[in-house]
Amino acid sequence: MAKIGIYGSSFDPITNVHLWTASTIAHRCKLNKVIFLPCSSNRTDKTMKTADEHRWNMIKLAIADNPKFTANDYELHQNAWEIYTYYTMEHFKKEYPEDELFFIMGADLLVDIANGEWKFAEELIANNKFIVMARDGIDMLKTISHSPLLRNHDDGTRFHLIDKGLAMEISSSYIREEFSRGGEPRYLLPESCYEYIKSHSLYQ
């Protein structure tokens, strides 16, 4: 049985911190595979700056040399009203029925779930396992203990909290802004992605 992490994000663009985070989580949590899952531009709660095609191509370029990394375009092909993390995890459980799956997320999303901001939150938490990355100023244990939904499903294996060493931040928005202002964010993202952005005049 393999251990697989599902790593969803806009990846607009993918950065070196995305890759470093995925690598660190794979090492610490003994994951056999990390699936990079770009979210669709159809989503109603996010606005992408770049076409799905370009984000997808950059992810493929960025992960090409790591055998533990793979990309999946499942959400890119879903209708807006079908894009919920619960549905996504159900899809992957059917795709990998023999394996142990984890949804990778930041502590800020854990807070959102605790506050009732996610659709199908009860089903999602009850039926899945999570790797949660620390975010500045968020007490993950307190977030779980103060939420009836989270604490009632906290069986000791539901939430794998990573609270040290993942605080490094290079935001995709910072990189986009640097490109738009004629800056030089070259070493904040993979060289192949940097060249792709330049050749396709993205984020201008």
Explain what the structure shows:
- This protein is 39% helix and 16% strand.
- By secondary structure, it is an alpha/beta fold.
- It has a six-stranded parallel β-sheet with strand order 3-2-1-4-5-6, sandwiched between helices.
- β1 (3-9), α1 (16-28) and β2 form a beta-alpha-beta unit.
- The radius of gyration is 17 Å and the shape is globular.
- Residues 6-177 form the Cytidyltransferase-like domain.
- Its EC number is 2.7.7.18.
- One of its GO terms (molecular function) is nicotinate-nucleotide adenylyltransferase activity.
- It catalyses: nicotinate beta-D-ribonucleotide + ATP + H(+) = deamido-NAD(+) + diphosphate.
**Whole-number average pLDDT?**
93
Strand content is 15-25%
Strand order of the largest sheet: 3-2-1-4-5-6
Order of helices and strands: EHEHEHEHHEHHEHH
- Quantity of strands, as a count: 6
Helix count, DSSP H or I runs of 4 or more residues: 9
Return residue spans where pLDDT drops below 50 for at least 5 consecutive residues: none
